[in-house]
Amino acid sequence: MVYQFEFRPYQLQFKRSLVTNHGIWSNRDGIILRLTNETGTGWGEIAPISWFGSETLEQALDFCRQIPGKISDEMIFSVPNELPACQFGLESAAWGVSKGYTTPHSLAYSGLLPAGEAAIEVWQTLWQQGYSTFKWKIGVHDIQEELGIFELLTHTLPASAKLRLDANGGLKLQEAHLWLWTCDQANANDELPLEVEFLEQPLSVDQFQEMLELSSCYGTAIALDESVATLNQLAACVQKGWRGIFVIKPGIVGSPSRLRQFVQQHNIDAVFSSVFETAIGRQAALQLAAELSRRNRAVGFGINHFFVQHEESWLKNLWEKL
Questions:
Q1: Strands 23-37 and 221-224
Q2: CATH number at 2-102+309-321
Q3: Domain map of the chain by residue range?
Q4: Residue 4: what are its φ and ψ, rounded to 5°?
């Protein structure tokens, strides 16, 4: 199949900067794609996070500029693995032309809390909006300060809530032991009936063996995130023996068709998560999540409260102003 190809870069401002161990993130920059032919129109999104393992925005833009006005399925499915966000965007747009997307209604969502003390206030707003699973960024401030905030959270979150901790690879080994021990104590405390679901990426990507050993020492589960940012990394961790939780970000992991094949073949315990994409990329990612989730874990797409503007009108304006 052959399509007419068009693209537009975009930038969306965050209402609240996202603070992680990787630094401060204030804007989401990406690219919207449109494929059209006699069958219909399909939209895709390239939303790279270079510090997480994908290509840079500049590399993605250079790639888009080299694509001719017409593009075939063969070209779409031959995008190199070094451009995983481009793979996702183009395949998603092609899928939209041929099959279309439906919005899954069966998924539960995890709401993202800001780092530090602000989490104590924000969770209440998200709870009122229907969230019961929350993810909180750690490894950002002093560990004793964060442990104190964690204690407050565990004593104020409702009994039916689940809490995920995300270190973004920012803990030292001794700190990871302390956090996992603390989580185990919280989970074993009958007076704290909420569940600490898992600790996400406690150590850096190059400390896989240490995380593998940690996973067998504590009751609290560990989830890999940065370590499995792309399909090649995902396959490597499975091969090296990881049987715990995998946090998969469809927007940067690579080819959706290859992801489907891999997850179905290995039946992994996956949590699908956002890359702060727009509604276009999110729709494609959520369809994958609904199709491939195996353990009924909440998906990490509760991030709309981080954006300044809603997306109903900006896409039309983006397309018409250029």
A1: unpaired
A2: 3.30.390.10
A3: 2-102+309-321, 109-306
A4: -80, 130
Whether residue 322 has pLDDT greater than 70: no
pLDDT at 77: 96
Read off φ and ψ for residue 104, nearest 5 degrees.
-65, 135
Read off the pLDDT of residues 112-155 as tens digits, 9 standing for 90 and up: 999 999 999 999 999 999 999 999 999 999 999 999 999 999 99
Return phi, psi of residue 78, to 5°. Answer: -115, 15
d(CA 140, CA 146): 8
Tell me which residues are annotated as active site: 137, 249
Does the pTM exceed 0.90? yes
Looking at CATH, the fold of the domain delimited by 109-306 is given as: TIM Barrel (3.20.20)
Distance between CA atoms of 22 and 5, rounded to whole angstroms?
Answer: 34
